[in-house]
Amino acid sequence: MSFSDLMTSLFFVVLVLYVLTYVMLKKEQSKLEVENEKLNQILQLEEQFKPLQDDGDFIYLPQCKKYISKELHSIEIFKPNEAVILDKYKEPTLNVGYKLESLLSDLNSVNEDYTYLIIIEGNMANTYDKKYSPDSDYGYKKSYERALAVYNLWSENNIDLRNYNSEVLVSGSGFNGLCRDEIEENNKRFSIQIIPKIEYSK
């Protein structure tokens, strides 16, 4: 092989390596841009949820990422052993729904492309002697029925969280679940989880 052929071959090899390196760097740059967009959107969402966290009517449980009503905290809002909301607690329960609706309306006006999963979770307090098993069917069924009672009260008063790119799930964790209050009586509550669902363009 002549010197000129060798140099031509080397040039070709260097050119191929350059092109491959360029393509790989562009892919990495694209990935970084997507990750940066993801981070910015998450930070933006955290900022938008801040009014709810700062609201005096809610208690935010950071370890659980849940909101509970301050006014209804540690209060049995239902008739004993039933899934019927006591009359005196209907208005505070409605206020929770109105505030959530207002928050979702604001979020939707800022980010029309975002969707949210709203979970209404019923919780139950066990007896002082922990008579019920954490996986008691009674606990799961009753806590679900109580969460459903909250949902139905909101629906009857034209509170429809699905109007704002949101899906609503009604659930019950019974005497089980993470982040239960150490004071058992404080588990007589319902909690709300708002889970953003963000899609990223490639």
Protein architecture, described:
- Helix 1 (3-54) runs antiparallel to helix 2 (90-110).
- The protein contains three helices and five strands; from the N terminus they run H-E-E-H-E-H-E-E.
- It has 202 residues and is of the alpha+beta class.
- The chain has a five-stranded mixed beta sheet.
- It has helices at 3-54, 90-110, 137-156; strands spanning 58-61, 66-69, 115-123, 166-174, 189-197.
What is the CATH class designation of the largest domain? Alpha Beta
Unreliably modeled segments: none
Question: Average pLDDT value?
Answer: 80
Q: Identify the CATH architecture of the largest domain.
A: 2-Layer Sandwich
- The string of secondary-structure elements, in order, is HEEHEHEE
Shape from CA axes? elongated
- The CATH superfamily of the largest domain appears as OmpA-like domain
Q: How many E strands?
A: 5
How are the SSEs placed, and which strands pair?
Elements: H1 3-54, E1 58-61, E2 66-69, H2 90-110, E3 115-123, H3 137-156, E4 166-174, E5 189-197
Parallel strand pairs: 3-4
Antiparallel strand pairs: 1-2, 2-5, 3-5
